[in-house]
Write a structure and sequence with these properties.
Layout: H1 19-46, H2 54-59, H3 77-90, H4 92-112, H5 115-127, E1 132-135, E2 151-155, E3 158-169, E4 176-183, E5 189-196, E6 202-206, E7 218-229, H6 241-275, H7 288-316, H8 322-346, H9 358-370, H10 375-387
Parallel strand pairs: 1-4, 2-4
Antiparallel strand pairs: 2-3, 3-7, 4-5, 6-7
The structure holds flavin-adenine dinucleotide.
Flavin-adenine dinucleotide is lined by residues 100, 134-137, 142-143, 167-169, 213, 218, 367, 370-372, 374, 376-377, 380, 392.
Length: 392
């Protein structure tokens, strides 16, 4: 039987956290232990998102947790980050669901929406009564969303939207889609629209055959002459900067989440190495090459914890820049993926079985490396920041 997870803290990073921060972390950890860990491998096998957790997560204040007012928990950036860390220790797909609802849907309504839009959506989204998705990526516009083809045309007091979005988390279960489109009458400026998913002309079809994020819904969206009232435009959105601001929120959560996935893999590999015996009836943990892997992992996890904690402190102080978040996302997801691969190796053949969480994390992290700005795009963002030269 698996030993209960006690956290991974080599360098007393816990001592850098406040009581409130530890409380958020521990409460989320308990929820995940009791509600997600027991079902996640089966969900992953079946390619099923655990919808039964939507409302309970709402009751715990997980959605829009770092927003102020409108029924949101008003957590600090570090508290929010510790929450996403624990969610992703459970599963990247479930963390993705919470990130999309929070950073990619509630955040733009909070930041760019009218008071009426905020009142209508945020309290219900905080409870999980209304679900959102974020439509930016298109079949031919991924790393370069500025090349999107989706268009909005003003027609009287309505907008008519046409286009296609691809790889949209929660697309087919969402009640409202935040759709980014170029507005024809405004020099093709990119703006955000709230599109209720039951509007005529809106269609969401799930993408099947994913070997990653299997416990998360991923869909393609088609918008054919979808008509929305002008009051559905997010009035304060304008330009590519607006969706990029949303992505910054979500990337920040991912950088914490990746630490959670890495902790899960490392913890599993350590326990296994202490129990599994090969050669002279000795645990494999006694072999130097296995210890080297464990030492590498705990060192990298510790560095990643300190990196994202500092980014979180900067965010709480209002001093964080997008390149700081890029560094944390790039490093921490890479680190988690390497930990997942090494941990898989430590478990030998058992590492490929879903009796253990490692292979699921490994597959999930391949998506996490790609979405919200690929690893290489974040390299270019950091490069641009230090040289002043864009190399995209
Ligand atoms: C499971 C999943 C869920 C997702 N959820 C959402 C969602 O909810 N909403 C949403 O809008 N999107 C979502 N995405 C899409 C995701 O954000 C994109 O996949 C991502 O932005 C990369 O785009 P792409 O896949 O088109 O790859 P591409 O942009 O085609 O990139 C392919 C490769 O080329 C490299 N590359 C591209 N340009 C350059 C360059 N200038 N220099 C060097 N290398 C370059 C990339 O780094 C990458 O390695 C999701 C994706 C996945 C897999």
């Amino acid at each position: 039987m698996a030993i209960k997870f006690k956290g991974v803290d080599f360098l007393e990073v816990d001592s850098l956290l406040s009581d409130d921060e530890r409380l958020v972390r521990d409460n989320t950890r308990l929820f995940i232990e009791e509600n997600l860990i027991p079902i996640i491998e089966q969900c992953n096998r079946e390619g099923r998102f655990p919808r039964e957790l939507i409302r309970p997560m709402g009751e715990l204040g997980f959605y829009g947790a770092s927003l102020q007012g409108y029924g949101c928990a008003g957590m600090s950036a570090v508290e929010y980050g510790l929450m996403t860390q624990e969610l992703e220790r459970g599963d990247s797909g479930v963390r993705s669901f919470v990130s999309v609802q929070s950073g990619l849907c509630m955040y733009p309504i909070h930041a760019f929406g009218s008071e009426e839009q905020k009142q209508r959506y945020l309290p219900k989204m905080a409870k999980g009564e209304i679900l959102g998705c974020f439509g930016l990526t298109e079949p031919d516009a991924g790393s370069n969303p500025g090349s999107m083809r989706t268009r909005a045309r003003k027609d009287g007091n309505t907008y008519v939207l046409n286009g296609e979005k691809m790889w949209i988390t929660s697309g087919s279960i969402a009640d409202v889609a935040v759709v980014w489109a170029k507005v024809e009458d405004e020099d093709d400026t990119i703006r955000g629209f709230l599109v209720e998913t039951d509007r005529p002309g809106f269609k969401a079809d799930d993408i099947h055959g994913k070997w990653s994020l299997r416990a998360s819904v991923t869909s393609g969206l088609a918008l054919q002459d979808v008509r929305v009232p002008e009051s559905n435009l997010l009035p304060k959105s304008g330009g590519l900067k607006s969706p990029l601001m949303c992505l910054n929120q979500a990337r920040y959560g991912i950088a914490w989440g990746a630490v959670g996935a890495a902790m899960s893999c490392y913890d599993c590999a350590l326990q296994y190495a202490l129990l599994r015996k090969q050669f002279r009836d000795q645990p494999i943990a006694s072999h130097q090459l296995v210890q080297e892997k464990l030492a590498w992992m705990i060192s990298e996890i510790t560095k990643a914890q300190l990196l994202i904690l500092q980014v979180g402190r900067l965010k709480d102080a209002g001093k964080v820049d997008h390149q700081h978040i890029s560094m944390a996302k790039r490093n921490n997801v890479w680190m988690a993926l390497e930990c997942a691969r090494m941990s898989r190796d430590v478990l030998g053949a058992n590492g490929v079985s879903d009796d253990y969480p490692i292979m699921r994390h490994l597959m999930n992290l391949e998506s996490v490396k790609t979405y919200e700005g690929t690893h290489d795009i974040h390299t270019l963002i950091i490069g641009s920041s230090v040289t002043g030269i864009d190399a995209f």
